[in-house]
Every structure is written in C-alpha cells, then in structure tokens.
Amino acid sequence: MIRFSTAGESHGEALIAVVSGLPAGVAVDLEFVNHELWRRQQGYGRGGRMKIETDQAHVLSGMRHGKTIGSPIAIELINRDWKNWQEKLPVETGDPAKHRAVTSPRPGHADLAGALKFNFPDARYVLERASARESAARVAAGAFAKLLLRSLGIAVASHVIRVGRVELERDAAWEEITALAGKEEVVLACVDGETEARMKAEVEAATKAGDTVNGVFEVLAHGVPAGLGSYANWDERLDGQLAWAVMSLQAVKAVEIGRGVAAAASFGSRVHDPIHYAAANPPGRPTRFTRPHNNAGGIEGGVSNGEDVVVRGYLKPISTLRQPLESVRFDTREPTSASYERSDICVVPAAGVAAEAMVALVLANLAHEKFGGDSLAELKRNFDGYIEQIRSY
Ligand code: EPS
C-alpha cells in the first residue's frame, strides 16, 4: 500500500511528508520534485508569503544513490518564514507576551470550528495547521507518486477552467495542458490566452475590492489502463477515492468526475460514451476499444476504463478578506470584524497542482495494489503482463 502523511504548521520550522510503500528502484529526479513545488507556488493572485518561500525538497530517508529503496521516504520543506515566527510560535514555552493571537474567527476558515474543537482561546494554532501551506507537503509526496506512474506510462496534469465568472469555453487538448507545466511564467494556467487574460482581470477586480475569487481546476490522468479501482466494494471505487482525495484539499467544496454535473441535467442518450472497436490498436493505446467522447471521465462503475481520468475541483474563494466579514471577538464575544492576515486573492492554479498530487497518490496506490511488487522491476513485469492481456482482448 502506498500511503502518505504530512506534518508541520504554516509558520513552524518546516513541513514534513512521509511516503511509504513505494517500491524500491524508482529513479527520483529531485529537480522534477522541486519544479512541482515551484509550480504550486505560482499563479496570479498568490499572496506575499510566496515571495518569502522557495520550497525545496530535502529528502531525509528512503532514497539512496538517486533511487527509492522501499523504506519510508521522509521529505522536509523548510519554511523560510520561520525566522519571523520563532519567538511568536516557539516549540517550548517562550514568552507569552510575544504570542500573536488570531482574535476573531474568519467566516469560511477553520478558525471557529477548530478553536471550539481543540478548546483554544484564539485561532492561531488552528490556522497554523488548517492553512493551505500544508498542500506543499502533499505536492512533494505526490511528485514521488508521479515518478512511479511515469515508469508505467501514466502522466497527471491540470489546468484552470474557471476563475470567478470567466470560464474556458472550449475543450483543451492533452498536449496543451501538459505544456502548461513547462511554462516559465504561470498566470492562471489556462490553455487559452484570451480567456486567461479575462481571468486575470477577474482577479484584479477582486484585489481592488479587497475581496477574493477562486474557481475550478481540472486534473487529467493520461495512460491509465482500464482496471484500476473496483465496483466490488464501496471503498474500492476509483471515483470515490479521487473525490475524497481532491475534496480533502483546502478550499475545495465540490468534486466532479468527467462531466458529472452536466450529466445530471441531461438524457442518458446524450451523456454516455458509445463503445467502438478498432481493427488494430490505436497508437499509444493498449486497448482496441475506443470512445468518441469521454463524459464519464475515464471511470465507469468505479473502475478506470482506459480513457483519460478527469476530475474537477471547485474552490470556494479564500476566506481571509481585506474587507473582512462580521465576526465575534474570542475574548469578549463582542461583535467585530474577522481577523485579517496577509493572504492570497486567487489560488486556482496552485490548487490544481496540489490536486494533481492527490490524484497521482490515489492512482499510484491502486496501481501498486493491482500489480504488486517490492521492486519497480517486479511491479513493471506484472504491469506489462496485464497490458498484454488488455491489448489482446
Ligand atoms: C500558503 C501559505 C500561507 C497563505 C495561504 C497558503 O501563507 P501565510 O499564511 O504565511 O500568508 O498564503 O494560506 C491560505 C490560503 C489559508 O487559507 O491559510 C501556501 O503555501 O500555499
């Protein structure tokens, strides 16, 4: 089983990701891991914190001579901002006068629910862990999953399809989406320049108004063979696992598989993807079964069907507002405005990168579950045998 967990607070010394279960022998390209971390920091509308941080993976264990060794991989990401917080958030008792309380909860953030739950007098410790800063550790973990998937010919990418009222109104080709990851400057990670410019104007309007705006990202996984996930038990369904994984990301409030939302308002004859059979294997496809479109998002019955896996994440706008909403003081319970701390205006491209990581981790785990193996060679042998079976079906 490939699993991961993270630790670390937004303004603590470091974030940590621990990934276990990856087979031995996966070549780890740290430049790629760091590029993934860089991508998560980009996008028009990111906050001041991103000017402080340059996230870099410091691998502590589980990797020797450039390859995984089958042991848990521990990755540390140093928070450069820690130097500004050492006295305000010391690990040991420190000077209570230097504590920086978050005095009134922000509607939409975890502040109130977290303070009630953990019986904190203010929301400082809540936001420290609830912050989307944690998603950097997920991206580091996900990069390792992506490297494993890469050796099976599976790639995961994302793009932005909505910011506020502006939506991408055409289909995006896989090549266009993957090209975004190689760009030196990320604006809003939309494949269409004209739409992206209008998305940018939407963020500018929110910035001017002291407001925030988010939207929708789409993650695609290409090269996923038919047969990952299962309809046999509820918790084995690929769509369910992806929904959980993507929904668990900060600010994601809805997840869609394929064209699930539009499908709910359509007739079956307009939704389902007809099945054809080619005379020979189309290039790059292990199966001769083809579909003229992919409204199902590559998943039928909770099982991958060989088409691209397509997952959309809908983000609520960031809840830290420069023009704050009504709230209540933690100490006196008197009405006041919600606390304001430096924040982002728009994070859709960054959330898309974090969602790629989550999708990669789910797929890597299911691939490992199906094909097994303690070494990459063993996994690959089993994988190749299965692909041969599908190819000749
Ligand atoms: C984030 C780091 C944070 C925020 C943001 C995500 O940095 P700071 O709190 O120091 O400004 O920019 O956090 C939130 C959106 C949030 O709601 O907490 C990051 O690394 O992504």
Reconstruct the topology from this structure.
Elements: E1 3-7, E2 14-20, H1 30-41, H2 49-52, E3 58-61, E4 63-64, E5 67-68, E6 73-78, H3 111-118, H4 124-130, H5 135-150, E7 155-163, E8 166-167, H6 174-180, H7 193-208, E9 215-222, H8 238-247, E10 252-257, H9 260-263, H10 268-271, E11 276-277, E12 289-290, E13 299-300, E14 303-304, E15 309-315, E16 326-328, E17 335-337, H11 348-371, H12 376-391
Antiparallel strand pairs: 1-2, 2-6, 3-6, 4-5, 7-8, 7-9, 9-15, 10-15, 11-12, 13-14, 16-17
The chain binds ligand EPS.
Ligand EPS is lined by residues 10, 47, 49, 81, 127, 131-133, 135-136, 318, 320, 342-344.
What does this entry show, briefly?
33% of the residues lie in helices and 18% in strands. It has 393 residues and is of the alpha+beta class. The longest helix is centred in the C-terminal third of the chain and has 24 residues, at 348-371.
Task: Describe the fold and architecture.
The protein has 393 residues and is of the alpha+beta class. The protein has a single domain (3-391), classed as 4-Layer Sandwich (Chorismate synthase, AroC fold). Helix content is 33%, strand content 18%. It is built from 12 helices and 17 strands. The chain has helices at 30-41, 49-52, 111-118, 124-130, 135-150, 174-180, 193-208, 238-247, 260-263, 268-271, 348-371, 376-391; strands at 3-7, 14-20, 58-61, 63-64, 67-68, 73-78, 155-163, 166-167, 215-222, 252-257, 276-277, 289-290, 299-300, 303-304, 309-315, 326-328, 335-337. The strands form 6 sheets. The protein has a 5-stranded antiparallel sheet. A 4-stranded antiparallel sheet has the order 1-2-6-3, covered by helices on one side. A hairpin with a 6-residue loop joins strand 16 and strand 17. Helix 1 (30-41) runs antiparallel to helix 11. The longest helix is centred in the last third of the chain and has 24 residues, at 348-371. The protein is globular, with a radius of gyration of 22 Å. Residues 10, 47, 49, 81, 127, 131-133, 135-136, 318, 320, 342-344 line the site of ligand EPS. Ligand EPS binds at residues 10, 47, 49, 81, 127, 131-133, 135-136, 318, 320, 342-344.
